[in-house]
Structure formats: structure tokens, C-alpha cells
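Blinded run. Sample ID left blank on purpose so nobody reads anything into the name before looking at the predicted structure. Input follows.
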Amino acid sequence: MTVSRRATVFGAYGHTGRFVVAELHRRGWTPVLSGRDSARLTAAAQEYSLADVRVATVEDPASLEAAVARSTVVINCAGPFIDTSIPIVDVAIRCGVHYLDVTAEQSAALNVFDRFGGDARTRDTVIVPAMAFFGGLGDLMATTAMRDWDSADQICVAVAIDGWRPTRGTRLTGQRNPGRRFIFSKGHLTVDDSPSGLEWTFPPPFGKQEVVAFPLAETIVMSRHLKTPDIRALMNLAPLADLHDPNTPPPAAANETGRSSQVFLMDVIARRGQRERRVIARGQDIYAITAPIVVEAAERIAAGAVTKTGVVAAAEAFNAPDFLASLESAGASLQVSES
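Blinded prediction complete.
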């Protein structure tokens, strides 16, 4: 039997995990802090006077089951997700617990859809991979842009960031996911072959920027349910230079919330014939904004405000425009337009 508003956070002591625990605590949830490192879990729990700490590893399914069994939802914040997502989803399904993760990894999201998409045990369970800045946010924005369109000729997701100080988890994820990424072209996932030297004119404060193809989990989740033959994901060059520099330091808090000073803008355009629909999101700190995104999903699951169960993309599980509107209180500025 689950206990209402109890959430297990796997990887709770990591950079993003700490933001998620803080957001759950702020919204009145009971967080269960879980992961493999007992000392780091205990230290993280002391920040909020939380006593519920469960040491667990993906190599030990019994430890995972003990960590998630009485929760409403498990939120996986422990990358590389190519290693953690399948074992945790499997345990969550067996325990009847909903699952959310914050992966940006294409392979991890794809593995969850492929492995569990036809599993009859998920009929009454919500399994949403990539419920984060990369993945879920773009999916919600693209679905909002399409609105009453049943299809689009193309969907573009362009991200501009003023700089990127990667966490240790981001570094490890890059090492575990080398090689070329998938794009969605001509109705199929295919290896990225996009040309370099592209430009994108972002709204202020970024303006015209040179961009490159940088498809992450949004390409996977959007292609599961949005009817379009072409999905493009782009990013400006400055954050990628930081990401590829081994000397770039980790994120540094700019205020008491722990958020860094990093500024982001996500620009999503759906095209159909001569018409364009655009949704723009602006905010601060791509790691920190992930917390209200994934916790809002947990809130809606607990309230039964879910439009589809099973293994689903963010915008299949939740009402996209309404979900995006809820993020305004978390400091995300949103704009919708059509031409």
C-alpha cells in the first residue's frame, strides 16, 4: 500500500537530486532519500532534518524495493541513466509505484520505452522518462505549440544558454554515452548527420547565434506521439565549449536557493505549411528548473491529474498548456505566439 505524497528520490545527494528534495520538501511531500552512498545520504538528510534514508543500489533489487515500496512515486536523479533507469523502473512496476526520471540521455529514454512500453503491468502506473529541462520541457512546449494541429511539417527545439558548468553526473553521463546522437528525420530515428555552420535568431537576450545539432531526450519523447516527419534540436556554441572543456568548474550557487547565475532560453517552433507557432521559455539554471518540472509531475500523479498511463512522454501524461503555466511560479517565463 502506498502512502500519499511520499516520494523516493534516487540519487538524492547529487546536484539535481538536492534541488528535487528541496522542492518536494517545500511542497509538503515526505522525501525518502536513496542512493548508494550512506554518508552522503545522511549529510543530505540533515539539511532538512529528514530521517528517512534508504541505501540502495541498482545491483541489489531488494534494496531498491525497500527504498520505493511505500512511496507514491520514485524520482530517479542518478545518472548515467543508461545504468540506472531499467533496474529502477522494473522495481517500481513490481511495487506499483509511479516512476519519473530526469535523464537527458537518448539511449536511456529509448530503452525505457522499448523495454516497458508493451508491459501490461504498467496499465495503472505512470512511467515518464526525461521529465526534465532536456526532454520533458521541450515536449510540453512543442505539444502546446501544435495545439489543435493533428500534425506538423517540422518541429524545432533551439536552446541557448549563456554558459554551462557541468556537474560530475553530467561528465560521467557524457563518458557513458559517447558517439553520435539520433535525430528524427523523414519519420524515423536516424544517426545525426546535420550540417554545421547553422544560425538561429533567438529572442532577447541572445539574438542571432551560431548553433549545431544537439539532440537529446526530447527527440525520443516527442517522436513517440507528435505527428511530424522532422524533429530538430539545436544549441548555441558557448555552452558546448564549456561542456567540452575539462577545466570548466562545476556549478556555483549565486543565491541562497542554490541556483547558479546561468541563463537559458528554449525556443520551440512548430511549422505547418506557411504557418508557424512558437513557444518560448526563459529562466535561470537548467539543473534547478528541472526540480519544479519533475515535482509538478509528481503532484499531478498524486492528484490523479493524468491524461494517460503506462510508459508515456510528458505531454502524453499531462495537459501541456496547463502544466507549462504552472512553471511560471518557479521562475520560468513563457510566451506563446503564432505567425
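Unblinding after everyone has recorded impressions. The longest strand covers residues 263-272.
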